[in-house]
Input
Amino acid sequence: MARSSTFDDSQIFAAVGSLLVRDGNVTLQAIVAETGVSIGSLYHRFGSRETLLARTWLDAVEAFQLEFLAALESGGSDAGKRAALVTPRFCRTQRERAIVLACCRQEEFTSPDLPEDLLRSISGANHRAAAAICSYADNNAYPLEACRLGLVAFPLAAVRLYLPDQPVPESIDQYVGRAFLSAIQKRHSGI
Output
């Protein structure tokens, strides 16, 4: 009979984010020290350090996109601004996951040696968000580039001024909101 798990994956994923901030590196031994989960349990659950890192990245992307897509697809005249504000708010409410996304590139968490199903999940991770941004741009007659800048690039650049060393202050929200509005209004002002 199989034993039930004594840890939750989110506990391990949070430790990865914390270790990135503190040490700039993640080893299985450091995760063991941070969480108290045995190295055998980590290998049993994830199979390898590489799979653990990839699952950490995928978890962070999925958690962020859940909030981002809910805001962007909710409708209303302020859906885009609410979606842009997801980035700084996510950084405050889910700091460890945000650090994984804001401070590291996907390539740092993935390798071609991962299991095929995980590689497929990673490969498709951003497709729904990209499609939602395209739909938002089309539905509102905004230039796609303006939407990408206002929804993704500006919010990400703003939070990177703080992460991983400092918390993202609430005051940044007003700048992110203004940057989004400025990006989409550019076409109306002829700038």
